[in-house]
Amino acid sequence: MYKILEKKVFSPIIKEFVIEAPKVAKSCKSGQFIILRINEEGERIPLTIADYDREKGTIAIVFQEVGKSTTQLGQMEAGDYIKDFVGPLGEPSHIEKFNGPVVVMGGGVGIAPVHPIARDLKEAGNHVIGIIGSRSGDLLFYEDKMRAACSELLITTDDGSYVRKGFVTDVLKEVIDDRGKENMPLVVAIGPQPMMRAVSSLTREYGIKTIVSLNAVMVDGTGMCGCCRVSVGGTTKFVCVDGPEFDGHDVDWFELGRRSAIFREEEQRAMEQHQCKCGTGCGGAK
User: Fold this and answer.
1) 33 burial class (0-12, 13-18, 19+ CB within 10 angstroms)?
2) What is the CATH number that goes with domain 2-88?
3) DSSP assignment, residue 223?
4) Which of 107, 144, 101, 147 is nearest to 121 (CA)?
5) What's the gap between Cα 104 and its chain centre?
6) Per-residue pLDDT tens for 226-236?
7) What gap in Å lies between CA 60 and CA 244, rounded to an integer?
8) Quick one: which H or E segment has residue 27?
9) Is the pTM here over 0.85, yes or no?
């Protein structure tokens, strides 16, 4: 059993847990993920690591309540225990000193997993330009952490309710045009699939290498079930063992989107059958 030490509520649907998991914290690296299970009957939920503290033996995860399992997870409190917390899984991010500024981008909940990557790139001696965005200002989080992890930070919101109006791709284009594509060796983008696809499409025009982190349908996390397979450069890869990071220019985004929607009807039925037990009257799917 893994104890929830801290809980932060960034918005009604976005939450952070700090979990006591010393063995995971001891060996994890930026870019890797864990798979948790709330209880014996629970669904296996993959979440990329948002932060870690080796001395305290803790792992931070950030999640958005989008279905039955993540809604149940969000109802848990500090002091509660999670049944399973497996990791670290996947390949870590490639960190090196690049010749030129590196851009790291987080969209929505993708701000969380891009945070340790930005921090490690900066510690490796890179000038890190951070770009983070959300639908609105009330959904934005980790601003202070990202400012510390980056050399400079740019913020945007879809509705213009905080800092400026626009998408992260708008900001990225401005940065590239201002700094020059020849001076930009790498872009790392993590967020919703449409956001990562749009970033990859933009950087392809400029010829800038782009790394994305994929969140595919996953079961065992060891490459055995094959649920998380994705086509990258015309070759079948497994997100859990070959990724989660891939070259965004090589990802078959159409196939990834189609596979991600396979269980949408089952997820909707599960939410409709879910009965709220948190005492807040949320009504589960209502």
Assistant:
1) buried
2) 2.40.30.10
3) S
4) 101
5) 12
6) 788 889 999 99
7) 18
8) helix 22-27
9) yes
